[in-house]
Amino acid sequence: MSNIVDPLVGRIASRIRSEREGRRWTLAQLADASGVSPAMISRIERGESSPTAVILGKLSAAFQLSIAALLAETDSEPVSGVRRRDEAVEWRDPATGYRRRQITGPDFPAEIAEIHLPPGARVPYPAAAFAFIRQVVWVLDGELTFHDGDTVHVLGPGDTIELGEPAERAFVNATGSECRYTVILTRHTAP
Prior knowledge:
By secondary structure, this protein is α+β, with helices and mostly antiparallel strands. The protein has helices spanning 6-22, 27-34, 38-45, 53-63, 67-71; strands at 90-92, 99-102, 111-117, 122-125, 133-141, 144-148, 151-155, 160-163, 169-172, 179-187. The chain has a six-stranded antiparallel β-sheet, with no helix packed on it. The longest helix has 17 residues, at 6-22. It is globular, with a radius of gyration of 16 Å. The N and C termini lie far apart (44 Å).
């Protein structure tokens, strides 16, 4: 599939650089805020490296943006009407093979993404990646082992989990078959 990764490397690079520069942060300041090394951030901003899902989670947390916002086109036209499956851009995590396809456009009030988690994959996120968002995970196919802080939930097709307060979380596929799930999130402000 030609629309996986390549168009996104430049988009991600540009978005991360513009978010950092818009905040007037140095590479070192973003590294401190995210826990990602300045060298890795520099390689990502130059389009020399595609970030992993873990790195995107850390950067999104530092910027207080969703991963979908980091993957979105900043200069795209508002989307309405029919969006064909073969026109959708998918992002693939170079470390795990995790695939993410954004279902809704950047102007829709909820962000909805379809995720394909390969067998044996584990994608952890820091608690800060869940600040200022409300999120529901809905398993469509397969089995998802979801670590919510110290609590572990095994979710099957049709199961959902609505996430509460921010905690370290991990999406794990401990089976031999792909797991497909949907993430639905909205932004909210802290009290």
